[in-house]
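Hi R.,

As promised on Friday, here is the backbone we talked about, encoded as structure tokens. Could you run it through your design pipeline when you get a chance and send me back a sequence?
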């Protein structure tokens, strides 16, 4: 049996095929699937939460969370196998969130609108239901971590992938703000804009697009909330994804990326300009908080999750 404290281990489809030899009796398991996934600290974060939960509810004593590297072309077959091997829930990360939409039995309205699922919930009669907890994670990161009680009228979302989609929809649907989408690929930007325009009418808000190389800063006099939903900043060699030097004073920055070595470069330069800024760790905690709640029906401790994630990343302790 794998050491349940060895949260850093990356499991594979080959491990899953013999899971009963690794987890005799097949007690309930949870997992994050990604490709790559080695960087994920979700096992540390969620196993700490499960340990605390089991003190309140004995039934969670044997629940454990693992990370699996699953190639995109093996996602469909592996989901059937995860079900067979008594997994109670699954998180999906890059690149599985969008393809998984076609593989679930039922999808929540929120996840359907985003067009991506990051949480799969075991059904009673075979297969998985799909949910998306990223928007909730972003909402809590903005309101709790940044402490933003009033969100600026304009929100700038960088990127046109799955995370950008959930951020843009959060702005339009829940916060009711105008959205500016910055992307490098004009074709992808137009497709994304067309999708968002249908929401525009519903909520009476405006969606604007721009090329990442030429942000229309002159139109943001009142200050903006900038959300980095590109993958730029994940590698230490990456450039800063956005120039914050000319943003108005009353601007705020959320970088969805988090790093082992402290702040991301975007957060660093924003703080140098005395802008309120936070990286993606808070969002990670709150999306995981919501996922675990979906699987267990009980709220875990966000503070314990944050402490475990900081320890795993070698970062100083923070509040959730
Ligand atoms: P994705 O679907 O692969 O989208 C990535 C986006 O980044 C695409 O729009 C891509 O543009 C853009 N991009 C990549 N390289 C770029 C570059 N050099 N210049 C400009 N744009 C570039 O990934 P995702 O699922 O949306 O995730 C995006 C990021 O958010 C990832 O870093 C992920 O870890 C993070 N995230 C964090 C959390 C959290 O809880 N903290 C949750 C969700 C996501 P093209 O389409 O043109 O390639």
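Update: got your reply. Pasting your designed sequence below so it's all in one thread:
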């Amino acid at each position: 049996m794998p050491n349940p404290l060895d949260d850093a281990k990356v499991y594979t489809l080959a491990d899953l095929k013999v899971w009963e030899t690794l987890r005799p009796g097949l007690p309930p398991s949870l997992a994050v699937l990604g490709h790559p996934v080695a960087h994920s600290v979700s096992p540390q974060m969620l196993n700490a939460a499960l340990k605390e939960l089991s003190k309140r509810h004995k039934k969670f004593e044997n629940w454990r969370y693992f990370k699996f590297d699953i190639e995109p072309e093996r996602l469909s077959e592996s989901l059937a196998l995860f079900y067979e091997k008594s997994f109670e829930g699954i998180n999906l990360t890059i690149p599985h969130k969008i393809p998984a939409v076609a593989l679930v039995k039922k999808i929540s309205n929120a996840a359907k609108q985003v067009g991506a699922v990051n949480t799969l919930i075991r059904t009673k009669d075979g297969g998985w239901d799909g949910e998306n907890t990223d928007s909730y994670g972003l909402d809590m990161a903005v309101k709790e971590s940044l402490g933003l009680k009033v969100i600026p009228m304009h929100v700038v979302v960088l990127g046109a992938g799955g995370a950008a989609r959930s951020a843009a929809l959060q702005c339009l649907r829940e916060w009711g703000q105008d959205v500016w989408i910055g992307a490098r690929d004009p074709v992808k930007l137009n497709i994304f804009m067309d999708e968002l325009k249908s929401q525009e009418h519903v909520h009476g808000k405006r969606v604007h697009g721009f090329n990442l190389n030429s942000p229309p800063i002159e139109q943001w006099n009142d200050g903006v909330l900038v959300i980095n939903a590109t993958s730029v900043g994940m590698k230490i060699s990456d450039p800063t994804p956005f120039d914050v030097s000319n943003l108005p004073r009353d601007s705020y920055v959320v970088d969805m990326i988090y790093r082992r070595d402290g702040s991301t470069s975007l957060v660093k330069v924003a703080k140098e300009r005395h802008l309120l800024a936070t990286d993606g760790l808070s969002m990670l905690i709150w999306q995981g908080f919501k996922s675990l709640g979906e699987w267990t029906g009980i709220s875990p401790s966000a503070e314990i999750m944050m402490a475990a994630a900081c320890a795993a990343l070698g970062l100083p302790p923070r509040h959730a």
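One thing I noticed while checking it: The longest strand covers residues 29-34.

Thanks again,
M.
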